[in-house]
Structures are given as structure tokens and as C-alpha cells.
């Protein structure tokens, strides 16, 4: 009995050790030591990358990484190495093609990348990594102000569709009250039509949702076809001259229905920006009856008399935590969200990967919940952020259920096991 108890204690300690200690592949040195949630462990797959942003796993199990600064796309061929996964090769397969977004067609034979101005399609061979000549399929997306990322997502349920998100032209982009501005929205485009004649973002495609300040992550629930987005909300918020920006507004997880649903009641809805923002700390806002996620009108925005009639999110998150990607596990029981972290609040917040549990295609938690996020991977010292910590950006699952995470500022790729 005593020996069994001792062994159980050793195994428990070993499991705890694995959960908090990041292993690295040979020749790879991780810069930071993540703190892992219960049941998870982590390894460092790659380092020394240039601003790795969104990522995707191809049909042969290789990891494709969009690097920032118009660097291009990198292909990591993966192999198991004991109880972690490592890269047997790491090569650049595209140059100067992207600053953020990357996706693959449903059949895995077309690679899409995005940058400030356009979305480009390439033929792609997963077995060799060979990439064909690029063809722009969506153009006319340049902004003169901020928010250069263009999140993109393809659909298993509607294989000829690519979703493209375009953010606002600044913190408060007043012209986006008009849908024809072509900003602060998600649009759906036909891939096949774009291959013939490129879509112009402002005039082409269909509006899936608008009034969304800056969507940086998009995904499709693999089991229901439902489309979800994560949004970065407004900075430096004031109400009646009072600074309320530290804990407001909320970042937002929004549902947009299924692309193959001809009666999709969410299609084309407006989510309030720039006139209406969602509350995270209603008490700090000080409006009677306001709940988490309720929309209200702050200072400095266009007039809005109908915030109550605008669509709001399905879940909400801490202010300024900057969610940049969302991905579902294979059975859609959980969505994982990468929070890049705040610059607009003190103390810092974010800099973590969190889980939201789902059931029957929707989050388990209520829309007003403040505890829907379950810790998966966090920085051990958030006080060192943003300059001396990892900052999650892109997420991708492989067929073995391993979750890959990019960190742009540290130039690393992590692998989470147990997701």
C-alpha cells in the first residue's frame, strides 16, 4: 500500500512536471517557460522565425506558417520524436506573399494568403511543398490607417467560399456606419469566380457581418459548419468625459451562422461598431441595467439610438486582451483562442491561450459569463509582457489532435498536447 501510494505520488509529480516544463526539439531553444493548465503539456517546435502569424496544417500533416513583414510562407515537415513533435525540415516556400492570413482549400490543393491589399491563391502540393504561380482573387483592401491584417478562412461545408475580414481605418472609423465603406466587416467570396476575375472587396462578394471593428481570427466549426469570429474592440474608451478604458469595452466572440444555410438568420447583421461597444465591466460603465456584453454608446462616436437593436457577441472577454485566432478541436467540444495581449491597459492582460467549452454548436457558458475561459497556456510572468514574453497569434490542429501555436514577437512555434 505504501509503495503504491509512493508510486502514485511520483507519477502525479511527473505529470505536474510535464505540464509546466516546455520540452524543445534538438537545436531549438525556447525563450520563455509557459505555465500550463491542468491536463496540458507543451513543447517548443521552432524558434528564430520572423513574426510567425497565422498557421495551417496541410493534408500531409506539414505545418505552414505565414510570416509577417511580407516575408512569406514557411513549411515545417513534422515528425514524432518520443513524446513530442519536431520538424525534420524547415523551408521557405513563398516569399513576399503575406503579412498575416493563410488558409487551404477544402481539398488541400490550393493555398491562400492575405496581406494589406489582397488575397492570393496558389496551387499547392502537400507531398512536395511545391507552390504554383500566385493569382490575386480579392483586391482593393488597402487602408490608409491602422489594422493591416486580413483574416481569411475557407469552408469545408461551402468549399467554393473564402471569408475575408477587413478592419477599420483607425480606432474610431466613423465612415463604417455606411456598409459601402467596405471596412469593419466579414465578406464571403466565390473562389472559382475570383480565379477568373479578381473580386474588388468593396463592391464584390456578400457581407456576412459588419459593424465589427477589427476581426483578426475566423474559423468554421468542423461539425456544424457554424462560422465564428474573434474581435479586437475599441481603445481609450471614455464615457461622459470619464476614462473607462482599463476594463471596457469587452473583446468579443461572435457567431455568424453556417455558410451553407440558405436561411441563415445571422447573415448581414450589424454588430454596432463604431457607435456601440460591448461592456466587460458594467459597474465601471455606470449605466443602469447594463450586463456583460450589453452594447452602449461611448464618447466620440457617431450618434446611435439603436444600440439595443444591434447584434452583440455570443461570449465576451477581458478588455484589450486582443484575441487573434480561434480553432475548434476535432469533435467541436471546445474552441481554443489565442490572446495576443494588451497595450492599452495597465496592468497588462492577455498573452495566453484559453479554452471555451462548447455543446451542440454553441458555448456552454451564458452570454454574460466572465468565467467562460479555461486556462491552457499562459505566461509565467505577465508583468514582463509585452516585451519579454510569448504572444500567441495563430492556432492550428493536426490530425493527431496536437494544437500548434505561433508567437510572433518571440519567433516561436509551440505545440500543446492534451487539447
Automatic annotation (TrEMBL):
Ranges of residues in domain Pyrroloquinoline quinone-dependent pyranose dehydrogenase beta-propeller: 34-417
Signal peptide boundaries: 1-22
This protein's UniProt keywords: Signal
Keyword Signal appears in the UniProt entry: yes
Organism: Canariomyces notabilis
The protein's name in its UniProt record: Soluble quino protein glucose dehydrogenase
Amino acid at each position: 500500500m505504501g509503495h503504491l501510494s509512493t508510486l502514485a505520488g511520483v507519477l502525479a509529480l511527473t505529470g505536474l512536471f510535464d505540464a509546466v516544463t516546455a520540452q524543445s526539439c534538438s537545436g531549438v531553444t525556447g525563450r520563455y517557460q509557459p505555465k500550463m493548465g491542468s491536463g496540458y503539456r507543451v513543447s517548443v517546435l521552432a524558434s528564430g522565425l520572423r513574426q510567425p502569424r497565422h498557421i495551417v496544417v496541410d493534408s500531409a500533416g506539414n505545418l505552414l506558417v505565414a510570416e509577417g513583414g511580407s516575408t512569406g510562407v514557411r513549411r515545417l515537415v513534422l515528425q514524432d520524436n518520443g513524446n513530442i513533435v519536431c520538424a525534420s525540415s524547415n523551408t521557405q516556400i513563398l516569399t513576399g506573399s503575406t503579412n498575416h492570413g493563410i488558409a487551404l482549400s477544402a481539398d488541400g490543393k490550393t493555398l491562400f494568403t492575405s496581406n494589406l491589399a489582397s488575397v492570393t491563391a496558389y496551387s499547392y502540393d502537400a507531398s512536395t511543398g511545391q507552390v504554383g504561380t500566385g493569382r490575386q482573387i480579392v483586391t482593393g483592401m488597402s487602408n490608409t490607417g491602422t489594422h493591416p491584417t486580413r483574416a481569411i478562412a475557407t469552408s469545408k461545408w461551402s468549399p467554393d467560399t473564402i471569408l475575408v475580414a477587413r478592419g477599420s481605418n483607425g480606432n474610431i472609423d466613423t465612415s463604417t456606419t455606411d456598409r459601402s465603406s467596405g471596412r469593419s466587416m466579414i465578406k464571403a467570396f466565390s473562389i472559382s469566380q475570383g480565379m477568373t476575375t479578381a473580386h474588388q472587396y468593396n463592391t464584390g462578394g456578400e457581407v456576412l457581418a459588419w459593424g465589427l471593428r477589427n476581426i483578426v481570427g475566423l474559423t468554421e466549426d468542423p461539425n456544424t459548419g457554424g462560422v465564428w469570429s474573434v474581435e479586437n474592440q475599441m481603445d481609450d474608451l471614455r464615457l461622459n468625459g470619464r476614462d473607462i478604458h482599463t476594463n471596457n469595452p469587452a473583446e468579443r466572440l461572435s457567431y455568424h451562422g453556417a455558410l451553407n444555410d440558405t436561411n441563415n438568420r445571422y447573415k448581414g447583421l450589424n454588430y454596432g461598431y463604431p457607435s456601440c461597444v460591448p461592456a466587460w465591466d458594467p459597474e465601471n460603465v455606470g449605466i443602469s441595467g447594463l450586463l456583460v456584453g450589453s452594447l452602449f454608446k461611448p464618447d466620440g462616436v457617431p450618434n446611435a439610438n439603436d444600440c439595443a437593436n444591434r447584434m452583440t457577441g455570443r461570449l465576451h472577454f477581458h478588455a484589450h486582451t486582443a484575441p487573434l485566432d480561434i480553432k475548434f478541436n476535432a469533435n467541436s467540444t471546445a474552441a481554443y483562442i489565442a490572446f495576443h495581449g494588451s497595450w492599452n491597459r495597465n496592468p497588462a492582460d492577455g498573452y495566453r491561450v484559453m479554452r471555451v467549452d462548447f455543446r451542440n454548436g454553441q458555448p456552454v457558458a451564458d452570454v454574460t459569463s466572465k468565467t467562460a475561459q479555461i486556462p491552457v497556456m499562459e505566461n509565467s510572468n505577465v508583468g514582463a509582457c509585452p516585451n519579454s514574453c510569448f504572444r500567441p497569434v495563430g492556432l492550428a490542429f493536426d490530425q493527431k489532435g496536437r494544437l500548434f501555436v505561433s508567437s510572433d514577437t518571440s519567433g516561436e512555434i509551440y505545440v500543446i498536447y492534451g487539447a
